[in-house]
């Protein structure tokens, strides 16, 4: 293991043995109780609220957060925390208004929701879309970024071996089904949080030692040093650049690059909500953890995850800012300034023992996300394609077996696409890569779900037009709008900047992708409403909504209020 000492290796092996042993124990314990497909794919009725909450976090916080978000912390700063903090509000919305509709209508997969509310055509199209997205974008980025980070930490030259190792660990957990995933995620998230906070604590001590010359670093002093040395990295709202065309020689060039990723206050009126509400509320990968539970358990688990999201930027973003300050002061020898290498650069400072814990935390995040993702791929393929279109009379055993083969094939495809990074994940920047390309489908999907849930007049034709139109509009705004309408319109402002990659200067003109998502969503919603107005006032397939579904008990209300108060304090402090 290259740069790891014996103690580090022992700590990592202990993590591996505990997770694997616990997973096998859960599998054997539950196997005799229930072996049906719903039990395998959804862990129906067996996950507690804390297991649901922990599993949501473990599945969400992966390589793209540890590596990609730390990279954006290095490049932009605390503004990227909006993805985590707005997610806390999104989870409140999902828990109060979305989940009751899913559970009342016995929805187990997102394509099933679309078939129940609209028709089979919309369901099939989206099932194929989701499978493509999960394998080609999500699974590949988690695997590539995670393996790259661990490989860098271990000294390099082992990327492919690490990829295979991560996939085998995820396979061991994923083949056991959602129960094994859900309960092992509790251990994974514990390791992730302990290792993550330990890494941040040590990073802040290192900042105090290197920047202030302290003999024994103090974490609080180190944090204050970050704020003093990089005040621009502690602003949640980025100002819109005055100049829309910049070159490498201009200091404004970096400001433009930051703004196109996180367009200040504008993103809160556009794509930021679409990203979070679609991810947390219309995403099989996430909602699957709650769909097998009762309303009270599901709601509490989701709100627990929302509360934990408030603290995630400390783990996944703060190391990037520490790397920026150390790098700017010449204390990161060997680091080339590429943002996705920031987290690994910080891990290189960790002492014996703690480095092994950090690798275990990173591995836990990656393996949990890989296992959860392939389980969702398996669920959609088996329940929404195999059972409905390939073998309608499939037995429970055949469905579980098919689900396991889907997991194996998905992992093989992910390995094939990441072996030489044919998708260019490393060059795009991991976190931005995922948000940008997921954004092509998010506006249409969220519009379809939102109107399907809360407007009884929405028709199947409108849904089909909406998902296609949302996708087309996202591509149009991303690739063609500037050439047709110019850089400055009442809809958007496009920016031209230069970027250095592999020694070559590239000139890029683009509209901030979160703005693209916002307009794609608005236009799609308008189109769906106009089409639906030609249909009946109440669509025969509309859901029956009872206001009592959305009532919350006092314990739930307290958790919501506490989360909102903490979030308000964070925005007031770092606005």
Automatic annotation (TrEMBL):
Principal localisation: membrane
InterPro entries: Na/Glc_symporter_sf, Na/solute_symporter
Membrane in keyword set: yes
Keywords of the record: Membrane, Transmembrane, Transmembrane helix
Subcellular location: Membrane
Topology versus the membrane: Multi-pass membrane protein
UniProt key word Nucleotide-binding: no
Transmembrane residue ranges: 6-27, 47-68, 74-103, 124-147, 159-177, 189-207, 260-281, 302-326, 346-371, 405-425, 437-455, 462-482, 513-535, 556-574
Similarity comment: Belongs to the sodium:solute symporter (SSF) (TC 2.A.21) family.
Protein name in the entry: Solute:Na+ symporter, SSS family
Species whose genome carries this gene: Epilithonimonas pallida
């Amino acid at each position: 293991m290259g740069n790891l000492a014996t103690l580090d290796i022992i700590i990592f092996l202990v993590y591996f043995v505990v997770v694997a042993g616990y997973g096998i124990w859960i599998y054997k314990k539950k196997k005799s109780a229930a072996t049906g497909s719903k039990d395998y794919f959804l862990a129906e009725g067996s996950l507690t609220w804390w297991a649901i909450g922990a599993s949501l976090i473990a599945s969400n916080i992966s390589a793209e957060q540890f590596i990609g978000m730390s990279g954006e912390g290095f490049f932009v700063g605390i503004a990227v925390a909006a993805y985590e903090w707005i997610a806390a509000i999104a989870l409140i919305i999902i828990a109060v208004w979305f989940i009751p509709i899913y559970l009342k209508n016995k929805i187990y997969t997102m394509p099933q929701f679309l078939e129940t509310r609209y028709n089979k055509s919309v369901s099939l199209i989206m099932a194929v879309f989701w499978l493509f997205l999960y394998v080609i974008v999500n699974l590949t980025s988690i695997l590539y970024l995670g393996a790259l980070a661990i490989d860098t930490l271990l000294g390099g030259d082992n990327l492919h071996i690490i990829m295979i190792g991560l996939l085998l660990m995820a396979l061991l957990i994923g083949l056991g089904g959602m129960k094994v995933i859900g309960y092992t995620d509790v251990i994974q998230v514990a390791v992730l949080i302990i290792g993550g906070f330990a890494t941040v604590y040590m990073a802040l001590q290192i900042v105090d030692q290197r920047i202030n010359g302290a003999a024994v670093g103090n974490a609080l002093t180190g944090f204050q040093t970050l704020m003093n040395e990089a005040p621009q990295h502690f602003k949640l709202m980025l100002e819109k650049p005055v100049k829309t065309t910049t070159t490498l020689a201009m200091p404004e060039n970096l400001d433009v690059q930051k703004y196109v990723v996180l367009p200040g206050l504008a993103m809160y009126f556009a794509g930021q909500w679409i990203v979070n509400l679609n991810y947390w509320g219309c995403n099989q990968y996430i909602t699957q953890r709650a769909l097998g539970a009762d309303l009270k358990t599901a709601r509490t688990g989701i709100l627990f995850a929302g509360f934990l999201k408030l603290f995630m930027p400390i783990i996944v973003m703060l190391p990037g800012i520490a790397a920026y300050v150390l790098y700017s002061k010449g204390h990161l020898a060997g680091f080339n300034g590429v943002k996705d290498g920031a987290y690994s650069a910080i891990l290189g400072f960790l002492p014996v023992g703690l480095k092994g814990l950090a690798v275990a935390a990173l591995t836990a995040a990656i393996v949990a996300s890989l296992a959860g993702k392939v389980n969702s791929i398996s669920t959609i393929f088996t329940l929404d394609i195999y059972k409905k279109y390939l073998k309608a009379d499939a037995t429970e055993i055949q469905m579980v077996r098919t689900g396991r083969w889907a997991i194996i094939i998905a992992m093989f495809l992910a390995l094939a696409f990441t072996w030489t990074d044919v998708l260019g994940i490393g060059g795009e920047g991991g976190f931005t890569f995922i948000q940008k390309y997921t954004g092509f489908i998010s506006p249409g999907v969220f519009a379809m779900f939102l109107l399907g849930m809360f407007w009884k007049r929405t028709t199947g034709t409108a849904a089909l037009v909406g998902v296609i139109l949302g996708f087309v509009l996202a591509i149009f705004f991303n690739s063609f709008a500037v050439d047709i309408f110019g850089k400055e319109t009442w809809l958007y402002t496009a920016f031209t900047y230069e970027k250095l990659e592999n020694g070559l200067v590239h000139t890029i003109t683009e509209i901030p992708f979160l703005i693209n998502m916002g307009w794609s969503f608005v236009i799609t919603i308008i189109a769906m409403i106009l089409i639906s107005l030609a249909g009946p006032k109440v669509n025969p397939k509309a859901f029956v909504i009872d206001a009592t579904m959305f009532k919350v008990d006092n314990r739930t209300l307290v958790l919501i209020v506490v989360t909102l108060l903490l979030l308000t304090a964070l925005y007031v402090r770092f606005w």
